[in-house]
Amino acid sequence: PAEAVPQAPEDPLFGLMRAYKADTSPDKVDLGIGAYRDDNAKPWVLPVVKKVRIPFFFAFSEGTGTCERWRNCQTWKGDRNGAVRNSALNPAMVAEEILRNDPERNHEYLPIAGLAEFTSRASELLLGVSSAPAAEKRVASVQTISGTGAVHLGALFLAKFYKLNGANRTVYLSNPTWANHNQIFTNVGIPIATYPYFDKATKGLDFEGMKRALAEAPERSIILLHACAHNPTGVDPTPEQWREIAEIMKAKKHFPFFDTAYQGFASGDLDRDAGSIRHFIEQGFELVIAQSFAKNFGLYGERAGCFHYVASPAADAAETTTRVASQLAILQRSEISNPPIYGAKIASIALNDKALFAEWQENLRTMSGRIIDMRKGLRAKLEELATPGTWNHITDQIGMFSFTGLTEDQVARIRSEFHIYMTKNGRISMAGLNTRNVEYVAKAIDAVVRG
Ligand code: LMR
Question: What class of enzyme is it (predicted)?
């Protein structure tokens, strides 16, 4: 059968990563994949992830004594029921130690829907604590293989159940969008259309174009929306614009499919970054959300994410949700059986502990703050160089990415002449910039823009 298999192109983003790794130039700069880097261009294991502890009573058997096995721990007292759980006595441990020592981590299967204490806190992060959908039992949450798995599970669910006269409804993606959206929906047979999003002239939102397309799309279309920190453009609607988008979508009975991979990166505030989703929920939409913890927890390779279905308020909403959850379980079982533990466990411990949660928010501010500094730095250097064009969009755009406006030719030149790697569409991952390379990058942009 393999004779019929044509050669597929390499994934552009992972191909870029491979090319960057193979480049031996000491000047090389990676502005490709959306993964946070510190000021030394190194991956950053969040301090909160390193600090996550297992509860005291998990760590010890019985009695009193000195613990030698645990880092940062002097003496401990306690019984196995956790009678003494003074946090000062709690050994601070790195994540790897949890993995090794948590007696609960016995490599058994998680339930099909994943780790409940993780998925319920994950949904709270989006909907807010004590939200109406949670109180009314109209949220079904499933742990997924990060955001990609969540988009896929949602797409699969819609391909099976959201049809018109037996045919799949069309999903409208922003133009441009995260490249993977196209193939995920195509793979499950959902037709794709686009709505205008990026205005090349202003390097901001093409709001009129977007509204027109949403108004013209057939009723009950699926509309994929980036909840915040749009990938690849870094351009988000304002709260007022979100309200208008919701109004049009309500009038057209469209189905919102939110993708949220950057909560905490847009404004640095988790609640604010969930504002678009919360507004749609307040408006009574039935919707789905794909949620990734890759970026905001720095758990890229651990694949921690969730898919959430939220029913609109109705007398039978809880019953509808139960039915949806039962179908999601079947889909999940046939695809991955049950999700992986490690990343979800780390995120869950941090999300469910008050002090660690506060520290996580601090870590998020560190990441988003450094990115904002780099935006300011890059813009200032380009303006200092009087590089042709305007550069305010670098600081106007938000989140992990900036859509520079560089052409495909310029992107190719900056790579071959300066060893600077970015996606063909001119997107740069702002986290790839640091105090040492920002000037070099600005000068390179200046050179290619001048031709
Ligand atoms: C990106 O767009 O760079 C990230 O979302 C990584 C990915 O999986 O594509």
Answer: transferase
